[in-house]
Each structure stands twice: as C-alpha cells, then as structure tokens.
Design a protein that fits this description.
Layout (H helix, E strand, L loop, with lengths): L2 H10 L15 H12 L1 E8 L6 H8 L17 E11 L2 E11 L12 H18 L16 E6 L8 H10 L5 E5 L7 H17 L12 H11 L4 E2 L6 E4 L2 E8 L2 E4 L8 H11 L1 H23 L14 H107 L1
Parallel strand pairs: 1-3, 1-4, 4-5, 5-6
Antiparallel strand pairs: 2-3, 7-8, 8-9
Helix pairs in contact: 8-9
Subcellular location: Cell projection; Cytoplasm, Cytoskeleton
Family: Belongs to the TRAFAC class TrmE-Era-EngA-EngB-Septin-like GTPase superfamily. Septin GTPase family.
Protein name: Septin
Length: 427
C-alpha cells in the first residue's frame, strides 16, 4: 500500500478523544518559542531605487542604528548589488539582518537592462538554497538563508506618475519577491500632491498588472490593522538620523528654514506605519511568503525544467523514485541513441577517410608513373645527346690527327728542300 493511501486512511479515521488529566503537550508553543529564540532569526531586505533617494538613511532610521556603508556615486557603468550582513540584538532576540542595495540603479543613459542584475541576484539566492536543499547531507538549520524577504521599492517624489523604469522593474520582480512600494523623501511635495500621487501610483500598478505585497488579513489578530494599512500603500516616508529637541523630547526629525519635519509623527509621514508593518507585525509573514510562494514557484519551475513532476500522463501520483527511474531510463536511452549515432558517424567518417586515402593513393601512383615516364624520356634524350657528343668528339679527334699528320709531312718536305738549296749554294 502506498504511503499516500495510508496517510489518507489515517486522516479519515481520526477521531477526537477527551483527556482524563493534564498531559503537558500544551507547552509545545513555549518550546517552539524558546528554540526559535535560541537559534535566532534572519531577515533580508532589498532596497531598490535610484541613487540619492535616501535608501541608506531610511535603513538607519528603521533599525535605529548606524550601518556602515560607502556612499554611492552616479558614475557607475552598470547596476551593482551591494550586500551587507549585520548581527542585531534586541532584548534576548537576535536578528541576522542583511541589507542589499542597488548601486547605480537608474544612472545609465540606457536603462533597458537595469532590472536584470536584480533578477539574477534574487534567482541566485533561490538557487543556492535549492542546492543546499537537494544535498544528501543537509544543514538547513545552520544554513544562512540569503533569500530576499522584502523589497522596498523607492519611488522618486515627482508628484506626476511612475517612471517606465519603475514599472518594468516591479513587473519583473513581483513574482520573485514581496514588493513594498514607498515614496522616498515625501517631504518634498505638498500634502494634496502626495494624495494624488499615491492614487496615481496605485492606478498605474493595477493597470500594468504589478502585484505588490498585501499585508495579510486572514489572521483575526492583525486583520483590522493590516486592512487599514493596505489602503495607505504606497507609504510616503522620510528618513533621518538627526535628533532634534522638540518640546522636552529628543526626536528624529529634519530641520528646514520653514520648520521641522518629524520622522515619527504620523501627521508628517508614514514612517511609523512602514515600521509597524515591516518589522513589528508582518516580518514573519514576509519570511513565510518568501518560502511558500516565491521560493516554491522558483523550485517548481526549476524541477520541472529538470524533468521532475508530481503526476504521470494519466494524472496519477508520481513518486520521486519513479520520476528518477523514468528520467534515468530516458537518459540512458538518449545516451545509447547518441552512442549509436556517434558510432555510425565514426564508421561513416572512417569510410570517407579510406575513400579519400585510396583516391590520394591512386593520384600518387598516377603521378609516380608520369614522373617515371618523364624521367625515362629525359634519360633517353640525354643518352642520345651524349652519343651525339661522343661521335662529334671522335670525329674531331680524327680530323685533328689527320691535320697533325699533314703538318708533320709538310714540315719534313720543307726541311729537305732547304738542305738541297744549301748544297746548291755551296757548289
């Protein structure tokens, strides 16, 4: 019997029975809390926005500390993601906070591919977690989860509408991360303009099909406050680490010649609302949504690309072992097919090479025969020429001998005549 059938029968046959006394498993929530507190928590925030919108300042204000970081310039050749991890402690709760900022976002003339490094970074964190999950020996309880839990998208306070860069980037990210849009430096536009700007942003997001994170309303304890806060999105925020004395209290504020803007005054900005929703109320839901929605979507697509599936063609349950065996057999079949193709290709190439070699050998033999015949003809010509030269040399020698003989006879005849004349003179 399959394990799924057994589990189904157990579920169907489950019945409720009363307890005669205290057992103690009501302490499980306390055990879970104590274990979670001892292990600590992690939370990863991605800040997306143009340079100079106050991303670093807002992070310092949110967590009431001063994070170390180098100020970004407008001269970056491309978008770079800078990640910094910090260990924070509040009461007895430890938090490993990772802040990822987009350096150089929106600073290029051609902004067409500005979203790609962000998408690649998010996918890289999902892939790292998936690889850890697929290991034979997993250490997920000590693994540093670097998946992005919340994306704070900083919108420039233009007061008009969203830039095309913002719409394209949020559309590419909405299926991979929880997007919380915020209007940065909201003290630079008037209250009436801000209200119209929020309505315009919400309308453009809906018309372009951009899915932003909605605070959950299924939990009765937070349903009312989350429902109210959903209506305030996007949050108009102000960040400041400067403390100003207002009345008898020191408060975070920004001072201007015309007055003071208090960061934590809800009549001035939505900073308190953002902090409540992001940290104090929905931090765990953001972590859960990242794991159960965005990571599961990435994991499912990745495993489907690898050939894994839950059901067979008849929509019947398909176990991982069966999927592995089917994939293995498919792989072995493809391997044998490729091996046969390679063997046939090798045989074909060998035959072609043999034909080429035979043709080359034939050409060489023909060339050799031509050269041999040419050599014989040249040799015969040389022999004939040599014979002709020898005949000429012999004839020359004969003529030379005859000439020498005539010359010697002539010299003898001349000598006798001289002697005769000499005798005649004496007489």
């Amino acid at each position: 019997m399959a394990a799924t059938d057994i589990a189904r029968q157990v579920g169907e046959g489950c019945r409720t029975v009363p307890l005669a006394g205290h057992v103690g498993f009501d302490s499980l929530p306390d055990q879970l809390v104590n274990k979670s507190v001892s292990q600590g928590f992690c939370f990863n925030i991605l800040c997306v926005g143009e340079t100079g919108l106050g991303k670093s300042t807002l992070m310092d204000t949110l967590f009431n500390t001063k994070f170390e970081g180098e100020p970004a310039t407008h001269t970056q050749p491309g978008v770079q993601l800078r990640s910094n991890t910090y260990d924070l402690q509040e009461s007895n709760v430890g938090l490993k906070l990772t802040i990822v900022s987009t350096v150089g976002f929106g600073d290029q003339i051609n902004k067409e591919d500005s979203y790609k490094p962000i998408v690649e970074f998010i996918d890289a964190q999902f892939e790292a977690y998936l690889q850890e999950e697929l290991k034979i020996r997993r250490v997920l309880h000590t693994y540093h989860d670097s998946r992005i839990h919340a994306c704070l998208y900083f919108i420039a306070p233009t007061g008009h509408s969203l830039k095309s860069l913002d719409l394209v980037t949020m559309k590419k990210l909405d299926s991979k991360v929880n997007i919380i849009p915020i209007i940065a430096k909201s003290d630079t536009i008037s209250k009436s303009e801000l209200t119209k700007f929020k309505i315009k942003i919400t309308s453009e997001l809906v018309s372009n099909g951009v899915q932003i994170y909605q605070f959950p309303t299924d939990d009765e304890s937070v349903a009312e406050i989350n429902g109210t806060m959903n209506a305030h999105l996007p949050f108009a925020v102000i960040g400041s680490t400067e403390e100003v004395k207002i009345g008898n209290k020191m408060m975070k504020a920004r001072q201007y010649p015309w007055g003071t803007v208090q960061v934590e005054n809800e009549a001035h900005c939505d900073f308190v609302k953002l902090r409540e929703m992001l940290i104090r109320v929905n931090m765990e839901d953001l972590r859960e949504q990242t794991h159960t929605r965005h990571y599961e979507l990435y994991r499912r697509c990745k495993l489907e690309e690898m050939g894994f599936k839950d059901t067979d063609p008849d929509n019947k349950p398909f176990s991982l072992q069966e999927t592995y065996e089917a994939k293995r057999n498919e792989f072995l079949g493809e391997l044998q097919k490729k091996e046969e193709e390679m063997r046939q290709m090798f045989v074909q190439r060998v035959k072609e090479k043999e034909a080429e070699l035979k043709e080359a050998e034939k050409e060489l033999h023909e060339k050799f025969d031509r050269l041999k015949k040419l050599h014989q003809d040249e040799k015969k010509k040389l022999e004939d020429k040599k014979k002709s030269l020898d005949d000429e040399v012999n004839a020359f020698k004969q003529r030379k001998t005859a000439a020498e003989l005539l010359q010697s006879q002539g010299s003898q005849a001349g000598g006798s005549q001289t002697l005769k004349r000499d005798k005649e003179k004496k007489n």
